[in-house]
Structure formats: structure tokens, C-alpha cells
Design goal:
The complex is a heterodimer of chains A (100) and B (307). Chain A is mostly helical. Chain A has one domain. In chain A, 67% of the residues lie in helices and 0% in strands. Chain A is built from four helices and no strands. Chain B has 307 residues and is mainly α. Chain B has two domains: 109 residues, Up-down Bundle (Four Helix Bundle (Hemerythrin (Met), subunit A)), CATH 1.20.120.1200; 192 residues, no CATH class. Chain B contains eleven helices and no strands. In chain B, α2 packs antiparallel against α3, α6 packs across α7 and α7 runs antiparallel to α10. Chain B is globular. Classes of the chains: A mainly alpha (100), B mainly alpha (307).
Chain lengths: 100, 307
């Protein structure tokens, strides 16, 4: 059982390698940011899979990661607004085309 | 199977670190730094150091990303040139030297088991069941007291960047968001969960991984998300209640430590009283850590110029 859990955790880590490739390649900043979010999501999964093997308290790490991994995305959204303090949603809604 | 997992994790960690310092572009480097923080948190989980993993997840993957992305955006708005993130030879050699020396020391530390035995033997006298909390707030309380003051000093350094005429303004940029938008929705959904998790981490820290620093960071993040969505008014640096919150942790720590003088010595907690004393210190430390970290991320006061 322990072997399987670690195997599954390693498999998720390997998919994070794909996310790393996307962070490196881009091309857009949103692509890089979303790939980092994928790393966060994968990290939650790995922490949960490690919990029965290492310590059940690893679940607390998973909760904190799940809560806070989205923070970088909030920082990114803030930074993409014209004055760096707003919210791209405040701009006039445009069809389809992505801002910036 | 453990070897496979460790190899993949170490490879990812090294890749993220190299990409963060070796690639071009500040934005990409910052995103890799966030990814690096997540992999390091997983490495601490793998090593069984859950307390450290919690701190790394909250700081490395959470607040630092927010801080650095804001800094990158601010540099761009200021028209700063995208300076090369390529390391020069001398800094690279110096960093490699420090890393090599650290590794050499770590491998040569006598007593492979660390201080587990010593900490374990003294644990019943410490008042708490989590050995990490026992070390941080009892055996090594002096260190932690000074660290809590260092955090405050860091905030004073940030505030010192403000110009005289900006001192009247609230801290941080004038934050706003679209009412009813995604950001505001997130800022209304996340805090109830975050407050429960933060308080849980502080309370649980006495007997299992957690503590004032981890819980305080989560609470700071909760406050920040509400501030970023423009849902809470930001304080001025001369606000009395905020200054009280900032200083309460170190002050109560000092007071409780000084009350130890009557019972044996400075920062000595007698076993019968230790749990109550440590919990009192932790509660106020959490308040101060949360307030300090949130204000550190928001930055110095900035005058409001409405568009």
C-alpha cells in the first residue's frame, strides 16, 4: 500500500514536470501563472498521498497549500490591472479578446 | 518506491531553483520561485518536518508570491529596465561556496539523530506535547522572542521608506476591485475557512504540528485577501489599535518571560504553569505576526490619488 501511494505521488510529481515546462515556455504570462497554479494543485495531491505514509498531519499542509496557493494568482490579477491595485474585471467587458 | 519519489522530487526542486535564477525575465523567475516554494514544502513533508512544511507552504507558496509579483508589476509601471536575471560569475561562485560549505557542515554534524533524545526527555517539563513548540517557546524562548522583535523591525524599515507627506496616508496602494466580481467573491468565500484553519493551527500547535507563526501567516493571508478586494479599510501607520496589535506579541512575551523571574529566572517556565504561559504567549504572538506580515506585504503608506 505504501509503495502504491508513493508511486501515485511520484506520478503526480511527474505531471508537475509538464507544468514546469509550461512555466518555462509561456508564452503568455497567464500561461505561466496557471501552470504555477497547477503545481499548487498537484502539491495538494502529493501532500495528501504522503499523509498515510509519513504523518497524517501532512493533511494540514495540504489544507494550507489549498488555501494559499491561489494567492499568487490574486497577486498576478492585481498586477495586471492598470494601476496595479485594481482588478481587470473593472475594465469595460470586452468580447473574447484577453486584456494585456 | 521511496527512492523513485525522492529522485523525482529532488529533480523538480533543483529544476525550479535553477530556472528561477538562471532564466531570463523577472516574471518567469518569480513564478518559478513560487513553484520552488511548493516543492520545498513537499520535501519537508517527505522528511517528516510538518511544522516546517506548514511554514514553507504559507510563506513560500503564499505570501512571498504575492509580494514578489507585486514588486515585478511595480518595477514595470515605474519603467524600470528588465534587468538581466543572469547571475554574474562572482556571485555564482560565492553562492556555490556557501551552498558547498553548508552541505559539508550538515554532513559532518555529530550525532545523526539530532537533539530528539534531549528534547524528548525534557518534553514532559515543557508544558506542551509538540517537541517543536517546546523548543521554540520554552527551551529556546529567548531566540523566538528576539525573532518576533526582528519581524517588527522589518516592518519599521518598510515604513521608513515613506516620505514625510505620505505619512498621513493609509498603508499600501489604494486597493479596489469590481463589486460582485470574481476577486470580491473569492475574498468573501475564503476568510471564514481561513480563519478556522489559522486558529486551529495555533491551538493545535501545543500538541501537533502548527503554532503561532504558521497560524499567524494564514490569518495574515485572510486579512490580505479581504484588503486586496477592497473590502476592508486599510489602517494608517499611526493607528493606535494597529500599533498595539503589532507590539502585543513581543510585549506579552517579555512580560510572561519576566514573570518567570519570580519563579526561577527570565524566560524560565515552571512545568506546572508552562502550558498556560506558552499558550498566552502564542495567542498574542499570533496576533502580532498576522498583523506584521499583512502590513509588510501591503508596504509603506501611499497617498490616495483618485483617478
Amino acid at each position: 500500500m505504501t509503495g502504491w501511494l508513493l508511486f501515485a505521488a511520484a506520478a503526480i510529481l511527474l505531471t508537475l514536470g509538464g507544468a514546469f515546462w509550461r512555466v518555462w515556455q509561456g508564452p503568455g504570462e497567464a500561461d505561466r501563472m496557471m501552470a504555477a497554479q497547477l503545481v499548487g494543485t498537484g502539491g495538494v495531491g502529493v501532500a495528501m498521498l504522503l499523509a498515510p505514509v509519513i504523518s497524517w498531519h501532512a493533511l494540514d499542509v495540504a489544507i494550507v497549500l489549498a488555501l494559499l496557493a491561489a494567492f499568487a494568482a490574486v497577486g498576478f490579477v492585481k498586477a495586471s490591472s492598470p494601476d496595479g491595485a485594481g482588478d481587470p474585471e473593472e475594465a469595460e467587458p470586452s468580447e473574447g479578446e484577453e486584456g494585456q | 518506491m521511496t527512492v523513485l519519489f525522492d529522485l523525482v522530487l529532488c529533480a523538480l526542486m533543483l529544476l525550479a531553483a535553477l530556472a528561477a535564477i538562471g532564466g531570463r525575465g523577472l516574471f518567469r523567475a518569480t513564478v518559478f520561485f513560487v513553484a520552488y516554494g511548493i516543492t520545498v514544502a513537499l520535501a519537508w513533508v517527505r522528511l517528516g518536518a510538518i511544522d516546517v512544511a506548514l511554514a514553507e507552504a504559507a510563506i513560500g507558496a503564499g505570501l512571498t508570491g504575492l509580494l514578489l509579483l507585486g514588486a515585478v508589476a511595480r518595477l514595470r509601471r515605474a519603467g524600470a529596465p528588465e534587468f538581466p536575471v543572469r547571475a554574474g560569475l562572482v556571485p555564482a561562485l560565492a553562492a556555490a561556496g556557501v551552498a558547498g560549505a553548508t552541505g559539508w557542515v550538515a554532513l559532518r554534524v555529530p550525532g545523526a539523530g539530532g537533539l530528539w533524545t534531549e528534547a524528548g526527555e525534557a518534553l514532559p517539563l515543557s508544558g506542551v506535547e509538540n517537541p517543536v513548540t517546546a523548543v521554540l517557546l520554552n527551551f529556546r524562548a529567548w531566540d523566538t522572542l528576539l525573532e518576533s522583535i526582528v519581524l517588527l523591525a522589518a516592518l519599521l524599515a518598510v515604513w521608513a521608506l515613506a516620505r514625510e507627506e505620505e505619512w498621513e496616508a493609509p498603508v499600501g496602494p489604494p486597493l479596489h476591485a469590481r463589486p460582485g466580481g470574481v476577486l470580491e467573491g473569492m475574498a468573501r468565500l475564503l476568510p471564514p475557512v481561513g480563519i478556522v484553519v489559522g486558529v486551529f493551527l495555533v491551538w493545535a500547535g501545543a500538541s501537533q504540528p502548527g503554532g503561532a507563526f504558521q497560524g499567524g501567516t494564514v490569518l495574515a493571508a485572510v486579512g490580505l485577501i479581504a484588503a486586496l478586494a477592497g473590502l476592508v479599510a486599510l489602517p494608517r501607520p499611526d493607528s493606535g489599535s494597529w500599533r498595539t496589535a503589532l507590539a502585543a506579541g513581543p510585549a506579552v512575551f517579555l512580560l510572561v518571560g519576566a514573570s518567570g523571574l519570580a519563579l526561577g529566572g527570565l524566560l524560565l517556565f515552571p512545568p506546572d504553569w508552562a502550558k498556560a504561559m506558552i499558550l498566552t504567549v502564542e495567542v498574542f504572538l499570533t496576533l502580532s505576526i498576522a498583523a506584521t506580515l499583512a502590513l509588510l506585504v501591503l508596504g509603506p503608506p501611499q497617498p490616495r490619488r483618485m483617478p
